[in-house]
Amino acid sequence: MTAVDLLLSSGFLAFARHAGFLTAVEEVGLSVDGVCGTSSGALVGALWAAGMPAREVLTELGSRRPISWATPHAAVWRGAFRLDAVVSRLREWLPATFEGLKRPFGVGVVASGRHRLLHAGPLPEAVAASCAVPGLFAPVEVAGERLSDGGAVDRLGLEPWRQFRPACRPLVHLVDRSAGAAAPIPLGDAWVVRSPRSGASLWSLGDLQAAFEVSRALALRTLEGVLDAGDPSQAGRVRA
Predict the structure, then answer these.
(1) Which residues pair with 221 in a beta bridge?
(2) Counting beta carbons within 10 angstroms of the beta carbon of residue 185, is it exposed (0 to 12), middle (13 to 18) or buried (19 or more)?
(3) pLDDT at 181 exceeding the cut of 80
(4) 222: which residues sit within 8 A by CB, 6+ positions away?
(5) d(CA 213, CA 218)
(6) How, if at all, do strands 105-111 and 145-149 pair?
(7) What is 21-65 written as a DSSP string?
(8) Does the pLDDT at position 122 exceed 90?
(9) Which residues are CB-contacts of 88 (< 8 A; sequence separation ≥ 6)?
(10) Per-residue pLDDT tens digits for 30-78
(11) How many alpha carbons fall within 13 Å on the CB side of residue 13?
(12) 68 contacts: CB under 8 Å, gap ≥ 6
């Protein structure tokens, strides 16, 4: 079958959900050309697009309480916490720019109240900005602009991604909404895997393994149909 582009939705600290989905993608050997993520989807998607296996992504992101990544912000009107520690860690994990990745990658952010898809320029800062939930985290400066969580306006970024890559066939992982835009998401002809909300908080990510396995199982069920719809001979190891 033709390779797909993966789109990972926002979902509050939904690391285990997205890692479970990506593990299923790895296990069935689905060929992936591009990746787009918003909020937690941007964070998980960036690490995976940079070559980190999905289970390792979960290990890295699940190794500490989320609140430990946050730094109290003196200018609380901009957000209760800063994401400086997240940016620093992402600089260790990721290339400096989008262009350093081996496949097209995009993140959804908000600039001046409007959604924007970033797919070039500084990468660690863009990923952190996509995670900057308004009110909770201060916007992150990216190339001179203060940007925040794209999920506040568009939880998936499917239409901007289609404009960027009009020939793609999208496979969407849509985590049930915890916060962010409440409007229905038009999915068109995209293949869709739906997962329950994360159930996580700043103080606890909850039962990561259980959340991981649920989303992995849901994804495997859908991906069997995706492979059946195309040419099974094209299934092989997901390209790194």
Answers:
(1) none
(2) middle
(3) no
(4) 191, 192, 193
(5) 9
(6) antiparallel
(7) HHHHHHHHT--EEEEEEETHHHHHHHHHHTT--HHHHHHHHTSS-
(8) yes
(9) none
(10) 999 999 999 999 999 999 999 999 999 999 999 888 888 777 676 665 7
(11) 19
(12) none
